[in-house]
Design goal:
- The chain is α/β, with parallel strands linked by helices.
- The chain has two domains: 27-142 and 260-308, D-Maltodextrin-Binding Protein, domain 2 (3-Layer(aba) Sandwich); 144-257, D-Maltodextrin-Binding Protein, domain 2 (3-Layer(aba) Sandwich), CATH 3.40.190.10.
- 36% of the residues lie in helices and 16% in strands.
- It is built from twelve helices and ten strands.
- The chain has helices at 2-18, 29-39, 56-65, 78-90, 106-113, 186-199, 201-208, 219-227, 274-285, 287-292, 322-328, 330-344; strands at 42-48, 70-76, 98-101, 116-117, 139-151, 178-180, 213-215, 232-236, 248-251, 259-268.
- Strands 1, 2, 3, 4, 5, 8, 9 and 10 form an eight-stranded mixed beta sheet that branches. A two-stranded parallel sheet has the order 6-7.
- Helix 3 links the parallel strand 1 (42-48) and strand 2.
- The termini are far apart.
- 45% of the residues are buried.
């Protein structure tokens, strides 16, 4: 009877914790900056990504804006960070203040367990409704999208650029497509799920015969297309406005699906630097950051996309909520992953972020 009562108390406490909500942040960025310095001047973010230095631009911009506060961004594949955080929580060895990853199915799960600290950053009210938790447990901080990336020096005629799915089956692209292993990245996997739903498994079989150059991580396709080591890819993102002095061009399809999603972030309960974490999230949602630091769509409804683009939630072939729904059905995800592996193989080679271990607190040397 004592055990039953105790279990009931713990269960109710967990429900109460999971149901916590937050009031919108009333302080300014400058006030948060002062609080972060008083706290110790550091914030640790576990960020989903592909290479140790992938978030260097974010780190530089943040530290320039907020002198005296160090931003340590630890980049790894989202699937490894989620396991790392689960293990740190289980062993009471939590390192990061913030988790910022693409495996969106974890955030409702973590909220239910009561391990997220609700927070509504400055600008939270302007975030598109479907991109945030109503209690402030987590919020989208930028929109990412995977679609066509083309080397415009190798393909100077825009009429030859691949836009639709079947364009990648053209003979001239044989051996010139770089492709992240879809079994290794859920966003790439979802690209294939949408394609198989529309065109069937014959398309995957035909694409495999195009002899793609397989890589781990989604940074390598960007780098290889830019360097001319591959001509095209659909397994990475790109600047809506081309980056200066680059030849890569990001191109959306007119009809076929592409993958878009809000990269979500949350403060972990028990974070050692909660004030700096609040500063970081509020800075990420700031209009200047959303406009000038991030290179794709904003999560805010009051920031227009670059000329030639619509708000991401207006694309019928790029529903930014579809990826999260796909990830939520883990049995279906794993079944589809196993089938794709039969056609295109399992991931080979070292992980592109390196081996970070159980408790990394800063980026690997790079």
């Amino acid at each position: 009877m004592g055990l039953a009562v105790g279990s009931a108390v713990l269960a109710n406490a967990g429900k109460a914790l999971a149901g916590q909500t937050a009031s919108p942040e009333r302080r300014s960025l400058d006030q948060l900056h002062k609080a972060a310095i008083a706290e110790g001047g550091r914030v640790i973010v576990y960020a989903g990504g592909d290479t140790p230095g992938q978030q260097d631009g974010t780190k530089k911009a943040f530290e320039k804006r907020f002198p005296g506060v160090v931003l340590d961004v630890v980049v790894d594949y989202s699937k490894f960070h989620e396991a790392r955080i689960d293990n740190q929580i289980a062993t009471k060895t939590l390192v990061p203040d913030i988790v910022q990853i693409q495996t969106l199915q974890n955030f409702p799960r973590w909220k239910k367990r009561g391990v997220l600290q609700p927070y509504k950053p400055i600008g939270w009210d302007k975030v598109y409704g479907a991109f945030k938790d109503s209690d402030g447990a987590y919020t989208g901080v930028f929109v990412d999208a995977f679609s066509n990336l083309v080397n415009s020096k190798l393909l100077p005629d825009q009429a030859t650029w691949p836009r639709e799915v079947k364009d990648y089956l053209r003979p001239e692209f044989k051996g010139k497509i770089v492709l992240t292993y879809p079994t290794d990245d859920d966003a790439v996997l979802f690209w294939f799920k949408q394609v198989v739903d529309k065109y069937g498994w014959d398309y995957v079989d035909a694409l495999g015969k195009q002899e793609p150059i397989y890589v781990r991580g989604t940074q390598a396709p960007t780098d290889m297309v830019e360097a001319g080591q591959a001509t095209v890819t659909f397994s990475t993102d790109g600047g809506l406005v081309p980056f200066p002095d680059t030849v890569s061009r990001f191109v959306l399809p007119m009809e076929d699906p592409f993958v878009a999603w809000p990269q979500q972030a949350a403060i972990l309960k028990g974070a050692k630097h909660p004030e700096a974490a609040k500063l970081y999230l509020s800075w990420l949602l700031d209009k200047d950051t959303q406009t000038n630091v991030w290179y794709m769509w904003s999560v805010r409804t009051d920031i227009a996309p670059p000329e030639g683009y619509k708000p991401i939630w207006e694309y019928k072939n790029g529903d930014p909520t579809a990826f999260g729904k796909f990830l939520a059905d883990r049995a279906a995800v794993e079944s589809f992953r196993s089938q794709i592996g039969l056609y295109l193989g399992e991931a080979k080679g070292e992980p592109s972020p390196g081996h970070l271990g159980l408790h990394p607190d800063k980026a690997l040397p790079h």
